[in-house]
């Protein structure tokens, strides 16, 4: 079992930045590839970014590529999402997720993930 707790959400103006953190506990953190997803009420949860167990491989949704950066610190059991140049359409609840295994192939769907956090709200004002 892996427990995930997100933090760092809040209200920011368009063009601003936020850094989300996800602290993991339980099983060996480095055994899991990690991802961030987001969801707007009434819409499907969508993939944002993924990082492999080592941090050496990353993958992004086209909508955030060049603006968001995912990273991890296995010594701290934490994964981060640095969000720059935020837009109002980035407003959502952001969820951290874990999948057992080392690679990130196929980690773009909700069903691909094994564990989820409860989410943190990001609101971008125009």
Structural key phrases:
seven-stranded mixed beta sheet, 126 residues, globular, mainly beta, four-stranded antiparallel beta sheet, 0% helix
Describe this entry's structure for a reader:
The structure is a single chain. The chain is mainly beta and 126 residues long. The protein contains no helices and 11 strands. Strands 2, 4, 5, 6, 9, 10 and 11 form a 7-stranded mixed β-sheet that branches. Strands 1-3-8-7 form a 4-stranded antiparallel β-sheet, with no helix packed on it. The radius of gyration is 13 Å and the shape is globular.
Number of strands: 11
Shape: globular
- Tally of contiguous helical segments: 0
Most strands sheet: 7 strands, mixed
What's the average pLDDT?
95
Subunit organisation of the chains: single chain
Relative strand content: over 45%
How much helix, percentage-wise, in residues? under 10%
Radius of gyration, taken over Cα atoms and rounded to an integer in Å = 13 Å
Can you tell me the residue ranges where pLDDT is under 50 for at least 5 consecutive residues? none
The ordered string of helix (H) and strand (E) elements is EEEEEEEEEEE
Structure summary:
With 126 residues, the chain is mainly β. 0% of the residues lie in helices and 52% in strands.
Topology:
Elements: E1 2-7, E2 10-13, E3 18-26, E4 32-39, E5 46-51, E6 58-60, E7 68-73, E8 78-83, E9 92-100, E10 115-116, E11 120-125
Parallel strand pairs: 2-11
Antiparallel strand pairs: 1-3, 3-8, 4-5, 4-9, 5-6, 7-8, 9-10, 9-11
